[in-house]
């Protein structure tokens, strides 16, 4: 592995023009494809194997066209205090607004609240339902503006008017301030780490190139594969974070090799051969974790995971090809000023550049001084090595305390109730709950298959009566039959809100009573669906899939790390550390988003159940990223150990070379993920917070504290591998051992200084 990547790095260095042009050509090609693509359409959510999905499929079969119905908007009218919507003036204002709602080419129809009996019992609230010919992603701004215009007309009549429904959701795709915040913080961290504008700018430039290729590709394929805007946002989030980090590690290793007196081409080859090997295996762990989301069996989750995995693959390839190519164009630009600065007597320098002390060149190129052997990373490692047991106990107890709230985790799928009160969708939700009861926003849809019944109408009526008398159901609508008369649909409204635990219990009660209910229905069967039941089923399926997913992903990653480190205990230690950090991160998510402690700074105005997909998303993404830091940090320890250092000294060497870079990489990832907390989409907001917290805990507590403490306690046993297993495992040589056995390159007869602004790079080639 290291030898192949070493050659690839040198090839990219020498053929830098071709490497950069190839990637730019790819960027232009996918960019043109994105411009011509129809764009993302509504992603049809499906989850095979659950009752709600079976009911939806039955409706699609027995009610042709129902599954393809367009978007809807629900306009809610609230009368002034003490009045009713049926009052003459209020009714006139509502009817005028309904007439206006019917205007527009995309509108399929409007249900008048007085004809559709959509008026609350106390007469304070009414709503009109607008159906469209197109899906929500295709509803134009002009159509939404028409809804606002109708609402303004009713407001002039003294009514309070709000609008909700999927037609009013304009989406929240990528491309906001989140990316700007992340890139800005990353630029500052890189500048502080490297002390060079060029060294700070190169990882940002290559990461932006990778994100551009990824996003254009996602846009091009969005319509064909049904990719949503959330898919693109997640791919951008991860692509930007790992793209910066992977380039950062290669550039950092290049500077280190230059500090040893290597030529630019040799230093580039060694950087790609060593740090690039770590990048490849770190990227593989992330790809395994993301692609493993397919185990859950949710097509939408699979698509999001594969798109994000594609972004990681692009980031790895760019780190291995574009980064060395750019180093070839500007071999001295990424070095600190001291390393690029020529002596005042330029002629003397060019005649005998070797007269500069080797130590001075080394310190300048590395951006360090004489005390670099005792830098902060070295001092911290020695501190942990002297006190491994207290550090281990304190770290485990701290993470355990943070993980405790996770025991009260409640899963659900937040809807409009989780949005800010400044949005009309949230105010419409609250108005409907006040006027029609909390369960009105989440009715249960009952689908009755009466094909086997002697009298379908009687059978449906019996099922409706049985469900209507269930404790917790406040009303049941009249059934709607299909043309064949063998299938009916009606709704049952709970007395509790969609996210209330009592609603979940109610759905379970109705389903558990199915044998008795169906026995009285003379051969008819029924299934419970609707958004509320669907969310409950999703939560249960995700919880059931979490353990198989963990076993699959962690198992594959342990095998991969076994190849990388050739040790049994190091991969197991890495997996256990990940479990601690991810559980602690989930606990923090529960504290903020479910319990509401410290929620305001993060823009969380409404607490409630944690989104059903959040735990498995967090587990998948954080596992991959946690293994990133494990590979980058421990591979340097393994490299030092293989080259003859003691187990304890190898830990110190690993921290001396990698601690500052790992800290910078973690800060960059935290900044990128934290920037997405400001997104409108509640799913992205929650994922951004969870990922930022998990990276913070994993990088600074697990990898920086627990890892050296455990390795200190294990000593040489940490690198033990049975001989029989050692013989059977293929050697991937991440630490670059094969590169140290290569013959040294022939000395350059007349060494020249690195190109400077006065001496173009071409003069060096």
Overall description:
This protein has 765 residues and is α+β, with helices and mostly antiparallel strands. The chain contains 26 helices and eleven strands. The strands form three sheets. Strands 6, 7, 8, 9 and 10 form a five-stranded antiparallel sheet that branches. A four-stranded antiparallel sheet has the order 2-3-1-4, sandwiched between helices. A two-stranded parallel sheet has the order 5-11. The radius of gyration is 31 Å and the shape is elongated.
- The proportion of residues forming helix, as a percent range, comes to 55-70%
The CATH topology assignment of the largest domain is: Multidrug efflux transporter AcrB transmembrane fold
Count of strand segments: 11
The fraction of residues assigned to DSSP E strands is: 5-15%
**SSE class:** alpha+beta
Second-tier CATH architecture of the largest domain: Up-down Bundle
Number of domains: 3
According to CATH, what is the class of the largest domain?
Mainly Alpha
Oligomer: single chain
- What is the count of DSSP helices, taking H or I runs of 4+ residues? 26
N-to-C CA distance: 28 Å
